[in-house]
Write a structure and sequence with these properties.
- By secondary structure, this protein is an all-alpha fold.
- Helix content is 81%, strand content 0%.
- Helix 4 packs across helix 6, helix 6 crosses helix 8 and helix 7 (169-177) runs antiparallel to helix 8.
- The longest helix has 40 residues, at 54-93.
- It is flat, with a radius of gyration of 22 Å.
Length: 228
């Protein structure tokens, strides 16, 4: 889409909303949220009817609430950091300059071949010592989060690379022919089509990130799996 189209920015927003609402991943996410809310309602109903012992209910509330909050905090840190690194790596991967594309390719292949748990243990035990952290446990948790962000960035880089390459070369050339600047070409032609293609795969990867936070229980991070 270029400036001056009949539908304009508002039409583009309507198309994005329509794509999201029709996306099977979005509908599955809504269904999963409804199931979780239903389970919570059943638990609170069981507590109200004294089916669950009050002491057990208090224990479940305290531990699972803390675990859910920590899992959310871990995920909300890893997802944007991994997406930003993955976006830049995906862009570098399709560069015409070997000095940019080759290091990105080596990074992606190397990180994708490493188990996430190995990266977490390495970051937790070794990096605080390298950087001279005083609170080694808290610093280790932080570096473990960085390790998970690095791990997912390699997968997201390939997702973004596929999205960039899905844009037809003719459309980019047409944008150049009508006089768009490089930034306008990226904003109005490349990025809208890239995100439309990559949205389902990114949604799946974000779900994987939330599940991978369970690996942090191995180093004592108090997430849902740790308390479970």
């Amino acid at each position: 889409m270029v400036p001056g189209d009949s539908d304009g920015e508002e039409g583009w927003r309507r198309r994005v909303r329509r794509i999201i609402l029709r996306d099977p991943l979005f509908r599955r996410a809504v269904f999963a949220a409804a199931v979780v809310l239903g389970l919570l309602f059943v638990l609170y109903l069981a507590q109200a009817l004294a089916i669950i012992h009050p002491r057990l209910w208090s224990l479940l509330q305290d531990t699972l609430n803390e675990g859910a909050v920590n899992t959310f905090r871990f995920s909300i840190f890893i997802i944007p950091v991994g997406a930003l690194i993955g976006f830049l790596l995906g862009w570098a991967r399709i560069s015409r300059h070997p000095i940019v594309s080759w290091p990105a390719a080596v990074y992606i292949d190397l990180v994708r071949g490493m188990p996430a748990l190995v990266m977490i243990l390495f970051a937790f035990f070794w990096l605080p010592l390298v950087f001279g952290a005083t609170d080694t446990f808290e610093s280790g948790i932080f570096f473990a989060l960085i390790a998970l962000a690095v791990h997912t960035s390699a997968y997201q880089a390939e997702i973004f690379r596929a999205g960039f390459q899905s844009v037809a070369r003719g459309q980019v050339e047409a944008a150049e022919a009508v006089g768009l600047t490089n930034w306008e070409k990226i904003r109005y032609v490349v990025l809208p089509q890239t995100f439309r293609v990559t949205l389902p795969a990114l949604g799946n990867e974000f779900a994987v990130i939330i599940k991978d936070t369970s690996l942090l229980a191995a180093i004592g991070a108090a997430d849902l799996v740790f308390w479970g």
